[in-house]
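Researcher: Here's the sequence for the chain we discussed earlier.
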Amino acid sequence: MKNIVNKKLFLRSGLFILIISAIGGGAYLADQTNDIQEKHEVKLIEEYPAEIYIQSVYATYSNEIVATWNDLANEKELDTNEVFNKVKEWKELLAIQAAEYDSLNVPIKLQINTIDKFLAASQEEQTTEQRKVIRRLSFDFVEGHNSVKEGFIKLLEENDADFTVNDDDTITYQFPK
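Model: Thanks. This is the structure I predict for it:
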């Protein structure tokens, strides 16, 4: 009987030690991973500031601004106050960017202004004149999207990136190593 109790105590002690070791090892590995990630981000900022710009500004344009436009153009129910706040955030994001990225900043600013004007026009009474304004703004946004694409390509060329424009108009790129 004493032998069985000793075996259970030994197994519980071993299990306890394993759990504590796993927790400590996991915390150590998590700390090591954070250091590596931070060093990688610092290296990326030093070598390719355009990459950081693309990850923040162009990704915001692709993911948020275009999606908001699609929702507005398709007349989905949106909280206009929330969209006005997003427009303000996007303008602030562009305001803090360096002038060297104006080839892409300027067309994105025009796109944001188009959304702003579209919101204002869609809030007014729908007259024939208002519908013309809305159609014109829709055309402007599509044309502006092409300008953003051209600005993005120009930015990639200026930073010696290898890029390919795919059949579906997506652009894959890589900065030199």
